[in-house]
């Protein structure tokens, strides 16, 4: 068994699968030392400062209202809303709901390091999520994510139902479930899903805990914005429009310069800039 970062080395099965179109399962592949346990999740529910939006509760795709999950606290004499209500959330879990912890890399040092490693290797923005699901239950209906997915089973076992990927996949619930592949994930197993792979997962014999890393590549709009940012940073717009005598002439000069600038832009640098902007926006290191 290896740490996840060891599985990211050049020539690894995971690196090879990243640009492929088929799911990958690596059995007994990841050492679990340092990764969260169910006892850690229960402690977080009972006594942490968890607040929205760092957690959500789901059962078959449905979420309780905030009034059923949240509590206020008095901190230094001021009322602060949005904290997890441990009793209410505990009741939801006892009734079969899934607890989803969002962007765990913001507060879990070990997962932050793994997340940083994924950001360093893949041309995508990585985020980490934990799913705590009672036996026999699922948190989400069959769906497709708008990202590639790496899932690692931490405790218990989970049965993943994988569905065909459409020619032009997009995030959503319109999944064709007529054909499926069933994969049972045990602690230490890793599952990689290409972008748009339809899936749903159900805990089987006991409470399940798994971590999911979503790998989101820059959308076209982000690449266009990075292109414009590169152009503005070059100082060329100010020079191109400086001598124009009218708004129309200025616009023509800027468009001509923008077209010329495009022939000089390095595509890899453009992707790097788009990713750097996304990670800075979301607070990633």
UniProtKB/TrEMBL annotation:
Keyword field contains Metal-binding: yes
Pfam families: JmjC_2 (PF08007)
InterPro entries attached to this UniProt entry: JmjC_dom, NO66-like
Keywords: Iron, Metal-binding
TM spans (from-to): none
SUPFAM superfamilies named in the record: Clavaminate synthase-like
Every JmjC domain range: 97-232
CC cofactor: Fe(2+)
First and last residue of the signal peptide: none
Identification of the protein by name: JmjC domain-containing protein
Species in which this protein is naturally found: Kitasatospora paranensis
């Amino acid at each position: 068994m290896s740490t996840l970062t060891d599985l990211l080395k050049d020539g690894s099965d995971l690196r090879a699968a990243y640009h492929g179109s088929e799911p990958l399962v690596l059995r007994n592949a990841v050492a679990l030392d340092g990764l969260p346990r169910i006892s850690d999740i229960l402690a977080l529910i009972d006594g942490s400062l968890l607040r929205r939006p760092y957690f959500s509760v789901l059962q078959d795709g449905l979420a309780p209202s905030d009034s059923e999950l949240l509590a206020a606290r008095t901190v230094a004499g001021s009322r602060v809303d949005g904290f997890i209500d441990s009793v209410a959330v505990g009741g939801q879990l006892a009734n079969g709901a899934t607890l989803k912890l969002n962007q765990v890399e913001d507060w879990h040092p070990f997962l932050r390091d793994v997340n940083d490693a994924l950001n360093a290797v893949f041309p995508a923005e990585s985020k980490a999520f934990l799913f705590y699901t009672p036996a026999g239950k699922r948190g989400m209906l069959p769906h497709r994510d708008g990202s590639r997915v790496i899932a690692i089973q931490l405790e218990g076992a989970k049965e993943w139902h994988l569905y065909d990927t459409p020619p032009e996949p997009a995030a959503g619930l319109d999944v064709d479930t007529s054909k499926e592949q069933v994969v049972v994930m045990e602690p230490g197993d890793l599952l990689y899903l290409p972008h748009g792979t339809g899936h749903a997962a159900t805990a089987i014999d006991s409470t399940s805990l798994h971590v999911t890393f979503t790998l989101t590549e820059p959308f076209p709009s982000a690449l266009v914005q990075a292109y414009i940012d590169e152009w503005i940073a070059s100082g060329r717009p100010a020079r191109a429009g400086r001598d124009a005598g009218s708004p129309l002439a200025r616009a023509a000069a800027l468009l001509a310069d923008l077209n010329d600038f495009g022939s000089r832009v390095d595509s890899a640098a453009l992707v790097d800039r788009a990713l750097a902007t996304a990670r800075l926006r979301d607070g990633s290191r």
